Amino acid sequence: MTHSFEQKLNLAATQVEDALEGLLSPQARPGETRRPARLLAAMRHAALGGGKRLRPFLTLETAGLFGVAPEAAMRAACAIELIHCYSLVHDDLPAMDDDDLRRGRPTVHKAYDEATAILAGDSLLTYAFDVLADPATHDDAALRCQLVRHLALAAGLGGMAGGQALDLEAERSDKPLTFDEVLEMQAMKTGALLQHAVEAGALLGKASPAQFKRLSRFGALIGGAFQIADDLLDAKSDAATLGKRAGKDAARNKATLVSILGVDAAEQRCDSLIDEAVGALQGLEFGSRTDVLIDAARFVAGRTS
Ligand code: GRG
Fold first, then answer.
1. Domain containing residue 89: CATH number
2. What percentage of the chain carries pLDDT values higher than 90?
3. In the chain, fewer beta carbons within 10 Å around the N or the C end?
């Protein structure tokens, strides 16, 4: 039976959910003293029961191109989702975006409290690196170290956290970001983790430098398209559909590619990034096995939530 892209994504999401459920069980692991119940509950609120799981899907499918089984790539995929969930918890805090709704549910600081939300984010972030460094992730220690370093680069100062800082700085300044500055900020804030999700699959698959380069480019391009799609959804959709507040960018007079280019040109740019991403895959020797990544790229551009 052939599955539609949405069915494949949903199936992977269920597997990721199961794996995260195992990682976030109440049982303390060797080396831990205990897992405080309220903090663990807040982490579970953040990481379980929602989300498209697009980043882990990209890791699993990219690794799959090289014959790596989903079970073998799952821990690396979960580490990326843990980072993503931490970023959402911290982004929703009053000091940042101050949001009440995420994935159709109260944000972590609303369901618990601010201090718990900060600690839940910190613990999800830290746990991601514990998961990656654990020998259960891969028996090759050098590969585990590469995964740790790549994820740290994508998530930290010169990646997601740095991009968030640039975004906040711009919001608080009178001088709007230029087109190039928006591109750079978005590539760091949201693109870097999506790009890493693809790169992690390539690392697990021991891709050649040429294969890695093409897959990395694919990841960067869909990262760019993802952010435009997000800005378009913010401009055009509503909270009931999105599961989070809509219209935030306009309310804050925020420079996005949609505000700079207008809706039509932003849509065109998103489509051409996807075409370019598909082109990056075409130089690879995997034939129709990259179709699922092509579908993922199209899904990124056309998503409704
Ligand atoms: C707090 C260090 C720090 C960083 C925050 C990623 C981020 C930086 C903030 C999230 C704010 C936001 C809504 C950004 C737009 C892109 C984005 C990450 C959307 C949510 O990702 P999806 O659509 O969410 O993959 P699901 O819920 O499906 O996992």
1. 1.10.600.10
2. 85
3. N
